[in-house]
Amino acid sequence: MYKQIILCCLVLVNLYCNGVEGYLQSNRTVLVNQGQYMSYLEYLPPTYSESGGAKSPVIIFLHGAGEVGGTVDTLQKLKNAYGSPPYMIDKNTWPQSYPFIVLSPQIWGWWSCHFVHMLTKSVATKYPGADTSRIYLTGLSMGGAGVVDTIRINKTVTDYYAAAIAICPAQQPGGTDYVAPVSSGLPILFFHNNGDPQVSITNSQNWNNTLNDNNICPKTNLTVYTATSHDAWTKTYDPSSSFNVWNWFLQWTNVRPSGCGQPNTPEPTPTVTSPPQTTTSTTTTSPPSTTDTQSEIEGSKDNMSSAITLSSSISAILLLISLVIIF
Question: Which stretch is the leader sequence (predicted)?
């Protein structure tokens, strides 16, 4: 009887280990400057394929000041950033039906628009199964500043992105910052708490007003939450929110329609579905044509295989112990 009880416990442990671990986010690096690499987390949806079928849209998420790190060893900070995409993926609250590749880079200081753009450019070579016409940029607080800083560089850079969402961006617009997003016709949304004690709501208001006053098409929209905290991202990113930002993203590609296209006003939307194939963190310069090396791409595949092998090894060990007890 004693052996049977132990066996049952081991079986339950085995099922637990295989059933509730976080969705796999692999540690990656990308070359962003000569001899300089930026680390990031990579999540591939179950539907991702490099051998045909529907291409996967891409989310690039920029973290806040509380998640600053800069090495592969500090990427765990991103998984601990409550309410963020890497947090939801790690805690299994990110719907597996979502078709997105999610790339979450980590910076070691303030966000560099050049580094963000280099990661964006690498998508085409690193991810053959990615839909490069559907790359979406979003970030919170310092990461929100990284979003607006990236899309303001010039039209060539802005045209890489299908749409952008900045949450409580820690940066004001200045001078001619509106020119690139306006000339590109980039769809943009802003979100902010009206009583944010760390980043003034005037940042989002000024960005929203500046872009609309200069006739950006489609018009930008600012959603203001009644709250006295800095955290405007948990509600914004929540898949169960009445306005689903992930579904909103999928309306857009970087092939801009003539005219304004669809109204850019948040309203309740249905659950995220795969994009049609026929449509055109907390607390808070023009890039050179540098490309990633082949060794980086091969290293990514090796890391994925190692993670799968580790999980399989744990299951095998538990099964072996069970057999020893029985016999």
Answer: 1-22
